[in-house]
Amino acid sequence: MPVADLACHPLSFDMAEVFDEQQDAPGLTKGQRTLLKVKAAVARALEQTPYQMLRISDVADQAQISYGLFYHYYKDKERATVEVLLDFLEHLEKTYAQIHVSDDDYASLYQPNLFYLDVNRRNAGLIRACLTVSEEVESFREQYTLLIDRWHRRMAQSIRRNQKTTDELLPDAELVAYGVGGMIDQYCRQVYAQQNPFLSRLIENTHHFAETVSIMWYRAVYGRSPTKQQILNCRPDHKSGE
Amino acid sequence: MPVADLACHPLSFDMAEVFDEQQDAPGLTKGQRTLLKVKAAVARALEQTPYQMLRISDVADQAQISYGLFYHYYKDKERATVEVLLDFLEHLEKTYAQIHVSDDDYASLYQPNLFYLDVNRRNAGLIRACLTVSEEVESFREQYTLLIDRWHRRMAQSIRRNQKTTDELLPDAELVAYGVGGMIDQYCRQVYAQQNPFLSRLIENTHHFAETVSIMWYRAVYGRSPTKQQILNCRPDHKSGE
């Protein structure tokens, strides 16, 4: 599949591996380490099996633990999945906030988009589970909606900062944020979750994908194209003092 | 709800009403008229009840017909729904093709967008059912995917016609078509299907919605904004010889 590629955004992550690494943190009890092992197994199982079809045996097989141990930590697959998804979303938001903000307005879109697309690629099962579980579990839906709202509000702030305020026919910044956010999420759904073969064929790799999304986003928000130099500076083969 | 408004695009339609009107066509047999009555009832029932929860009694109540008559035409709710959805998509595509192509490049986006948003608003249940049924019924999914592919191909052609071919860093027209298509579909899903209250509050009416979508679309595709006069010319309060 051409969408996969190796070196992508340095902050991109695979949530199962994050749970693996957390087990090595100093000072954990054996119980805390086992819980992280169960969480890693849930995350891996959800990459292979949609939430609706997930069975505890899939998780137990992954973690090489007994059913009994799973039920020691979680009442059912819903509780386990909700907790793993909330950990994932928290990690996503925290990591997103660490992305270096560039002085260049195109790079300021490109770098977060590259990160976001790559996280979607590597955690497609968790992203899909977010949608399914948010339809079924109200407490999760509320937290998920709050996160999306925060994301749109930050986007809208950055759009407002960069809009020319003299233009009285400018579309509302909040609405624009929903538009570009919807665009990137719908791209991800079609490429990574539904694996639309026609669309996937158009995408060379995640860098190329991020470039297309970022150029459209830049144009939609600023009403002009980034310069050729801005685009080239963000390409992975670009060598310079950065 | 502010999103509703009266006079919208002249070609916009409510599919249940289309089935009602088709019953008046000359030369129909009684059986053909009753079938259209059943189809209208299925369309109305799907506006009130999601497909998963739809029962034949909902349809029978709507059409004021007996269970027996429903089963005279359809084996089950799946067959009935698939046929109604295919009729809807065919009518949508045929009507879309009748939209007058304007000489103005902004109006050429605005008019189809206004039509498409209003059809989404008035047939939100059918649109939602398209997604659900395409996940469950392979034969429907194939036809639905073909339709979406045709739509993207037409969009890409029009994007290619209007791109400046001198620009070597231009994103691929097919990918751009998926981007703007994803944007409008995701807007519709959030406003009409999920009825996101925050987003709905930002939208004054369908004309305002179409204007925002069209400005973003125009910018994303052409890399510049439409002129103030182009935007004003498309507003419903604009009076001139058109």
Count of discrete domains of chain A = 1
Main beta sheet of chain A = none
Q: What is the overall number of helices of chain A?
A: 12
CATH superfamily caption of chain A: Tetracycline Repressor, domain 2
Domain HTH tetR-type (chains A, B): 32-92
Protein name (chains A, B): HTH tetR-type domain-containing protein
Organism (chains A, B): Hyphomonas beringensis
InterPro entries (chains A, B): Homeodomain-like_sf (IPR009057), HTH_TetR (IPR001647), Tet_transcr_reg_TetR-rel_C_sf (IPR036271)
Structure overview:
Chains A, B: This is HTH tetR-type domain-containing protein. Chains A, B: Pfam families: TetR_N. Chains A, B: Keywords: DNA-binding. Chains A, B: GO terms for molecular function: DNA binding. Two copies of one chain form a homodimer. The first copy, chain A, has 242 residues and is mainly α. Chain A has one domain (15-234): Orthogonal Bundle (Tetracycline Repressor, domain 2), CATH 1.10.357. Chain A is built from twelve helices and no strands. The longest helix of chain A is centred in the middle third of the chain and has 25 residues, at 138-162. The two termini of chain A are 30 Å apart. At the A-B interface, helix 9, helix 10, helix 11 and helix 12 of A face helix 9, helix 10, helix 11 and helix 12 of B.
